[in-house]
Amino acid sequence: MHDALAVAELIRTGKLGAKEVLDGALAGLRKVNERLNAITDFYDDAPPPADGPFHGVPYVIKQLMADCAGHPTTVGSRFFARTPVAAADSAAVARMRRAGLVIVGRTNTSEFGLAPTTEPAFGGATINPWQADLSPGGSSGGSAAVVAARALPMAHATDGGGSIRIPASLCGLFGLKPSRGRVSLAPIGETLAGAGAQHCVSISVRDSAALLDAIAGGEPGDPYRAPPTAGTFLDATRRAPGKLRVAFMRQPVGQGALAPALVGAVERTARLLEELGHHVEEAAPDYDAAALDAAFWRIMCANTWTNIQLRAAGRVPGPDDLEPVTRSYAERGRGVTADDYIRSVQTFHRTGRQLGAFFEKHDVLLSTTIARTSLPLGTVRMDGTAEAFEQAVAPMTPFTAVCNATGVPAMSVPLEWTGDGLPIGMHFVGRLGAEEMLYALAAQLEEARPWRNRRP
Catalytic residues, which ones? Predict the structure, then answer.
């Protein structure tokens, strides 16, 4: 399958017609959606594409953290199914359109993006194309399922605790979470005390890099700006990364051992990196994982309560408008004190300094993306207690969430596979602002272990 840049080039040179591509993509998406339930809304009235690097390439936007003018952003919730309707595109969506992308629909997400699966009560579960009884992960599972099924070469995704990288791992895709402040969240200022980010999942490294070139940059008044880059992210994919100092982890910080299949995946990837000329050693950052986890849930709850109040504009959710865990988190968030919230944010910052010290000695931190080999549907439930929900979430985020809390970039790369052929994403973390280095490494790995033709 062609990646997005290749499709745009075929359109630009007249070998494909933009309308032909658009009509074919919409037909394919509708067919795939009958099986996967990945797309919540189709937009058939797309304006002519701009003449950007992705000229004429169809694209879908997740129902979270991004607005499309004239349409609601449901955040996966029945309560916001029809209102409010966005008055304008969010800043990143506007940049996507200027890059030539044609937005043809919205993709499914867990309610408020709280769950690392995509099984909202509103709209129903999205299916993983690799196996019908598995989840594609979340909360960007709708986007990941679309790309894994090769209905599109890339799709919008957001990440507050791993929601780009988790579905990329479970669906055999490439997914990079940018540094804090690399992509503006305007018109909102931040989400989850700075933990939230947005970008895409894709079948190729270069598509991800070129899209980040197109959407990166601040808007007036943004609370954060990522460090400046030396060149373009796409250029970074065309050069060797040099000899990197790679640390690898056989288990999460402060938690028990991984399954043997996952440990084996880490060890094989470490050997591959050595073969590619990198210096590799076993090492892990030192931070209080339990304190960070508690801070994350506290901030998540407070944000859930506040965001419902802001978006509802005076409306009160009825008994069936929110899922039980969402309602429980909102009520818990209502009781978070200023002291608790500030201490939680300080925990984020303290962990960031500890991770920063680690990256003075190492360039890259390697692990698996999640602490599972697959995610059966129904494993992470939003219709039970918050305690049961958090226990189910724990194996999904032990490597990813720390990157959100500290703002550093990280990527899931589809380098490993289970014995029965399911993808295992390998997780690579860099220091704040190190997306160019990660892209150079990812391109090297993509060449050494191509994955694009491994599909469901």
Answer: 62, 139, 163
